[in-house]
Design a protein that fits this description.
single chain; alpha/beta; two-stranded antiparallel ribbon; 19 helices; 52% helix
């Protein structure tokens, strides 16, 4: 379960008043185009109860009555300091993860799901500055290097929220307030924040410390902004993500809600959910020759009630049929085997996509998928070797059987290395981030510490690994790195093509040579990362 806290008191104005006059409480804003025309708060509360049967709403005493519902609880707070203390009390000793949402959020269910299922221990939703400002002639203004830039308390606004956050490629670097200055802020925090339970004690501590500093903050400073400031300065790596192909907007008036609903209607939430069912780290063959259409098979299967385990059984059956076709030793048997092993792999991808799309996960399914991937592959090895023997093309077939055993042993060793390194790497503590006291008014000491950390990690083995990682920004290098490790998609493709057009000996030689290169590359990388 995830503990959910809704923030019922929005920050004060830093931008022009919302369309349609004075701000209104989310409980008084009607979402007219949605079934039942719920209020913005009721819709969000229903989304929250899917995660937490008793979500907590923190609201001002004068607004608390508007937020009371038969389910959930409302905690009254008079100001930002009270909000922070109430939040600290709500998470103290919690054993669940935490999701914080502004009560004026209009958000897709899928976006909430993706935020709560992110692998990072802490992640915040952000909106980035759209483009570089232009001078009076329409040319981009020249900026001084980031190293020479001075911290500032930004007065720029994105979607009604202060642009006082500096984000990097994957995480939040620094956060500002009306008191804390930030070096070249380039984003605003939208409000949603998800934390793993291991960070909740730190959150409670910084919330109470920030509450004691509340007199330094401005009315526009959001509670989420303050919390992320505290977490970052305590050395917590807070990841950042944008909305991507999903919708999120904070609505402060009925007119804004009407406008946001019209905009949200233009988003295809189901398509975004379907796209999210496809793993982003797949190999070249899987990405371009399977996932382009397998997601639609997954949606079709999910809508008809097929479970991931049932799809896995289809994949196993196709794999065994492929092995049987190869075992005939005929050309048409080889062609049929190649086609069957391709579709066995397609359904091997579909089972995971069904699980992610339908959100049906289980230990049994994960075990079946991992175990029977190897089973299908090794069954096909046997089928190819039997076919070579039956055909008589290679005498008694002893040489082909030897090649099959070598290929099997090579893949087994490679899988063992992958699993053992993964297990060892999960136990390795991440390198600590620099910290900075909350009372320090600007982020220069934090940036200097980050520069020193970056410099220390850019030499020796770490520097070499960092250089190779940066090379992955170039698409040809990115896909070459994906292919060189010989993932299962490339292996099944190599088996299908070489068996259909050549013979089992060529198939096994391809597996051994490419597999040997992959094992060498992988082992080298594992050793370097272990030494770094």
């Amino acid at each position: 379960m995830t503990r959910v806290v809704l923030l019922g008191a929005p920050p004060g104005p830093i931008s022009p008043p919302p369309h349609g006059g004075q701000p209104a409480l989310p409980a008084a804003i009607t979402l007219k185009s949605l079934p039942g025309a719920p209020s913005a708060y009721d819709r969000l509360l229903a989304q929250a109860t899917a995660l937490d049967p008793e979500p907590t709403t923190i609201a001002r005493p004068g607004d608390a009555a508007a937020y009371h519902r038969p389910y959930g609880r409302v905690v009254e707070s008079r100001d930002v300091a009270g909000d922070l203390r109430a939040l600290a009390d709500a998470v103290e000793g919690a054993e669940e993860n935490l999701l914080i949402l502004p009560a004026d959020s209009l958000v897709h269910d899928e976006l909430i799901y993706q935020i709560t299922k992110a692998k990072r221990g802490a992640i915040a939703l952000v909106v980035r500055q759209e483009r570089q400002e232009q001078d009076e002639n329409g040319s981009p203004e020249e900026e001084v290097p980031i190293e020479e830039a001075e911290p500032e308390i930004g007065d720029k606004v994105i979607e009604g929220l202060p642009q006082r956050t500096r984000i990097g490629r994957s995480r939040i670097i620094s956060v500002g307030t009306a008191y804390h200055a930030v070096t070249r802020p380039n984003a605003a925090l939208l409000g949603p924040l998800h934390l793993h339970q291991r960070h909740l004690q730190t959150l409670a501590e910084v919330a109470r410390e920030l509450a004691d500093m509340a007199h330094l903050f401005g009315p526009e400073d959001d509670v989420t902004e303050l919390l992320v400031l505290g977490l970052v300065r305590r050395g917590v790596s807070v990841g950042r993500r944008g909305r991507r192909d999903l919708f999120f907007r904070r609505v402060r008036s009925q007119a804004e809600a009407d406008e946001a609903l019209a905009e949200m209607a233009g988003y295809d939430e189901d398509r975004a959910r379907l796209n999210n069912a496809v793993k982003g780290a797949d190999g070249f063959f899987t990405t371009f020759f399977v996932s382009t259409y397998s997601r639609f098979i997954a949606r079709w299967a999910a809508r008809r009630g097929l479970t991931p385990n049932q799809v896995t059984l289809i994949s196993i059956a196709l794999g065994l049929l492929s092995a049987g076709a190869f075992a005939t030793g005929t050309r048409w048997g080889a062609v049929a085997g190649g086609v069957l092993i391709y579709f066995a792999f397609v359904f091997d991808c579909v089972d995971g996509q069904v699980a992610r799309y339908a959100r049906k996960f289980g230990v049994l399914g994960a075990w079946l998928d991992a175990t029977f991937d190897r089973f299908k592959e090794y069954a096909v090895f046997v089928g190819l070797a039997v076919g070579a023997t039956v055909s008589g093309q290679f005498g008694d077939g002893e040489g082909v059987w030897t090649l099959a055993l070598v290929a099997l042993a090579l893949q087994s060793v490679k899988h063992l290395l992958d699993f053992s390194f993964g297990a060892a790497n999960r136990r390795k503590a991440p390198a600590p981030l620099p910290t900075l006291d909350l009372t320090v008014a600007d982020d220069r000491p934090l940036r200097e510490a980050l520069e020193q950390r970056r410099a220390s990690r850019s030499t020796g083995v770490r520097g070499l690994l960092k250089l190779w990682t940066k090379a992955g920004k170039f698409r040809p290098v990115h896909w070459a790195r994906k292919m060189i490790v010989f993932p299962i998609g490339e292996r099944f493709a190599a088996i299908a093509i070489t068996a259909a057009f050549f013979n089992p000996r060529v198939t096994f030689l391809t597996l051994i040579v490419w597999g040997g290169i992959a094992a060498t590359y992988t082992l080298t990388g594992r050793l370097l990362r272990s030494l770094a």
